[in-house]
Amino acid sequence: MTPSVDAFPRIFLDDPSGGRAEIYLHGAQVTSWVDGTGREHLYFSRRARFEAGKSIRAGIPVVFPQFADNGPLPKHGLLRTREWRVARQEPASATLAIRDDVETRALWPHRFLAELVVTVAGSLTVALRITNTDTSPFSFAGALHTYFAVDEVQEAAVTGLTGCTYRDKVRDWAEVVDGEPTVRIGGETDRVYAHAPSSVRLDGLGGRGRLDLETEGFGDWVVWNPWVELTAAQTDMEPEDYRRMLCVEAARIADPVMLNPGERWTGMQTMHPGSTSPVEAT
Fold it and tell me: Would residue 76 show up in a list of annotated catalytic residues for this protein?
């Protein structure tokens, strides 16, 4: 039997404009963001697991210091399955933190402080801060692996990546220049857009409206949808869930961050809700 959503501790933030966010200490994972109009913008699998050592299939998993399986560490790194602590909490903002320990150093021999700062104020801002507390430099990749909720994924579209080059995992990591006016989903999609614009738009969300996404410090975007076969193979997703979610992830993959001792890096993403509007004709 899968444990309930109450199996792990969580905190809530209240937006002065009437919205709300939910954050689990497990993975410092933002799993819900409801804006002031009552619209939920983050996907939460009804089969999500709440187990030690497992990630929650929902919201915004934190990726550090490795993206996906691009290296020797566990997939997406060290932090999305560990327990964070609340370093600071106010009604509309919170900072969660975690440091290296014996277990992390056995896998990745570096000392660090990771902080996630979440703020709701009409929009949702999530900032990942990494501080090198070691005596030698280290490099890392990072991402905010955001699962957006959509009414129907084939109606959704990402605008702002025209002319960008992406590496396509579905096509053996072929490099492709995207010449389309929008990114649309019609099959398994797993793309890393490197050196991309700092802002994109997510349209076609049905009753959820539109989202404008802005980033600082990242530089790449990942667009991912598992489609039919991969979704069916996941025990923590319902077979039709590929239709209900689309990952558009602020990431730092192409050029890993290099931090000297005592230095701190910040990657930030802000999500602004927009009105319900049609996507431009293609």
Answer: no
